Amino acid sequence: MNKERTSFAETAPAIPAPRRGQWLRLRLRNIAPFATLLFLVVLFSAASPSFLTLDNLANILQQISVTGIMAVGLTFVILCAEIDLGVASVANATGIILAFFTAQDASVNIANLPLPGGAAIALAVFGSFLLGAVNAFGITWIGIPSFIMTLAMLQIGAGICAMLVRGQIAYAVPKVIAALGNGGLGPVPWIVIVAGLVLALAHIVLTYTRFGRYVYMVGGNREAAEYSGVNVRAVIAAVMIISALCSGLAGMLGVAHFGSAQQDEFDNYLLDSISAVVVGGTSLFGGQGGIGNTLVGLFVLGVLNNGLDHVNIDSFLKILIRGLILLAALIINVYAQRLKALPETGAG
């Protein structure tokens, strides 16, 4: 009997030991953003005693709220291996539509046909949906690459803004939007709560719904998704509309939070929202990442921008540092994709 057991053990195939570094290379995209965030927190805490405080944490949360809502929509898009360069322009156009059609004070008669608050909100939401639908139609039905289509939408949104405001500034927004943009539930600002709810809802959709699985399938392998019966065009169209609606919500709350609606108000948010998704570790090649990664990326950018304001540093150097951080994230993103594509066997 012992002899039979020995013989079986000698002839059974050996289970290969895990390759050294395999665990790390498979999780590099998720580990790097956490390490970056931890490094920045330690660095700025040592450089400024006012950085690591509850009041400053509240400031960071408010600063990343508008970006966070826009980044949610971009997460859906990038997971499908697409891009949306029009998010900031759609946000700006939606905010201006809201303010343009809201009944203004007598001294600021922007619109000839001012609407009640609820109607102005509905019109603004419909405007963002329509802009997203135009993107979806151009990409999925005409076949225009998303980079080119959304670049055109960036100009279309800017044109809508210029046509409506014509160099003027609108200040009035519906009361409910004003409350969400500037009010709070106790010590917590409503804009932070809304951003948290949007992030949580998006995480649930991507993690626990069939549509979320389809998003990952389309981004991971589009041909395999089609063979599996997934309507790829419908999924891509849906994520483009989701991105536009998220941008529209961010635009409305941003206008209320900033206190005015004016042309080019959200231009800087395009780079910030894309950076949040990429720095967080969501793959530019699609199919990998998610809202958790975006949340980490938001905190990396929020801590970086806020921390640089706490130290005595040239304001122009801040722009360079942000660009270098984004470049490093892009390199890690591409490198992690190559590592993950390596065969599971080989020299350890």
Strands, helices and their partners?
Elements lengths: L1 H10 L10 H5 L1 H20 L6 H26 L7 H15 L15 H26 L3 H20 L9 H8 L1 E2 L2 E2 H19 L1 H11 L1 H6 L4 H27 L10 H12 L10 H20 L4 H27 L7
Antiparallel strand pairs: 1-2
Question: What does the model show?
Answer:
The radius of gyration is 23 Å and the shape is globular. 41% of the residues are buried. It is mainly alpha-helical and 348 residues long. Strand 1 and strand 2 (188-189) form a beta hairpin. Helix 5 (87-101) runs antiparallel to helix 6. Strands 1-2 form a two-stranded antiparallel ribbon. The protein has one domain (34-41, 51-338): ABC transporter involved in vitamin B12 uptake, BtuC, CATH 1.10.3470. The protein is built from 15 helices and 2 strands.
Helix content: over 70%
β-strand amount: under 5%
Low-confidence stretches: 3-18
Count of spatially separate domains:
1
Q: Shape from CA axes?
A: globular
CATH architecture classification = Orthogonal Bundle
The H/E string reads HHHHHHHHEEHHHHHHH
Separate helix tally: 15
What is the terminal separation in angstroms? Answer: 37 Å
Per CATH, the class reads Mainly Alpha
- Round the Cα radius of gyration to an integer and report it: 23 Å
CATH topology: ABC transporter involved in vitamin B12 uptake, BtuC
Q: For the largest sheet, list the strands in their spatial order.
A: 1-2
